[in-house]
Amino acid sequence: MTGASLIALALLIPTATSLLIPLFRERPNMREATTLVGAVALFAVVVLLLVEVMAGGRPALHLVDVLPGLSIAFNVEPLGMLFAVIASGLWIVNSLYSIGYMRGENEPRQTSFYVFFAVAIAGAMGVALAGNLFTLFLFYEVLTLSTYPLVTHRATPEAVRAGRLYLMMLLGASMLLLLPAIAWTGFTAGTLNFEPGGILSGKIGNVAMAGLLALFVFGTAKAAVMPLHFWLPAAMVAPTPVSALLHAVAVVKAGVFTVLKIIVYVFGIDTLAEAGASEWLVYVAGFTVVTASLIALRQDDLKRRLAYSTVSQLSFVVMGAAMAVSAGIIGSGLHIAMHAAGKITLFFCAGAIAVATHKTKVSELDGIGRAMPITMTAFLIGSLSIIGLPPLGGMWSKWWLMLAAAEQGRLFVIFVLIASTLLNVAYLLSIVARAFFAAPRGGAQEGKVSVNEAPWPCVVALSLTALLCVLLFFLVEIPQGMLLEITQTADPAGVSIDE
Fold it and tell me: What gap in Å lies between CA 141 and CA 125, rounded to an integer?
């Protein structure tokens, strides 16, 4: 099978899945089996693409010319391949988790939930494999529109308000900032294609380049760089599988992936470094990291605490890219993967707690580790990965970001990394301490607490993602090698693994 055929299948499988699911509206087992089969089939196709990319191939598919010089086209390179693997792989475990959660909570409109989820995955695949800015923009908007019904799924007044904010901020930023940035780029560079080393070198002044970068960063509101972050905590009114989609599988990862890809393939890290055009972004991202962590520390609602944690963690990706050095790009790319595994685990655990105990507040979790030992052990593993401790995958992305900061003598970035890590410990491990060491509420004695885990699909899914956090520590050479390749293409001096 050719690379072009595999790209087409990666787009068609989730689309076809979304069309098949409604046929089984009255047969929930078949509906959910269709979702799982679609997810597994997509992952298999993405793995075949991964094998080709790791062998040096660059599969491409030119779909259609919309206007002269404006086409819908796809081109698979290592950074997009990494995002495609993350989104397709996590769709499997999220689908499994959704079975237990949606049934356990007796959620309404479950068929439409699975339909829009599949469409969102198709959008994520288009973003990951896009060969130019126009194609990326189209699928980026598909992702926004398909996730709006998921955010408003419960149709409560709070969900409707959150959905309105979600749509207003994401579409507004896209139309007012991102689309003009794309038009400016096309006019200046004469092309919208992604190219190693960028397409703007020698074609735009330093001040204008900084302004264009600002349009891209804030226009990509899914990256949740402050002050365009409010939509993300508000969207936590959605069911937990949707929260996992927003935070780990597709939405915010599409945002920071877009920023990273534009910096590497539109601006070029050498061009940005020489112009100093991304210097301001290092400080804006660092401010977001620390401020969002401080806000997270004050949240009693568990999902909102995790949401502000995500706002903080996303800006590590942006900050690493803004340093415009190879080690920073590697750290940013790795953090997309490492954060996805850690944060989906934490959200899965939060949802499992809600299903099993109907508790949603941190202050209600005293002693819950005795009733839900598997869930809270997984929460501990996910937390330690987010903090960045070995032997968990989150260590590697922070290691590379620290190398980048040390290479450039950036004391501000080093301070941000240290401060964020300490705040991560405070707002995550305090939950674990409550769960395992505080006495259960209601005066129950330790010996009288019975195990009350969530439905088995939820427990299996969160156990698998916790295991993934561990595996990523030992398998880091695969994504690390892919990211090293793109930095060496962009910067021949590059860095080596030994460094």
Answer: 12
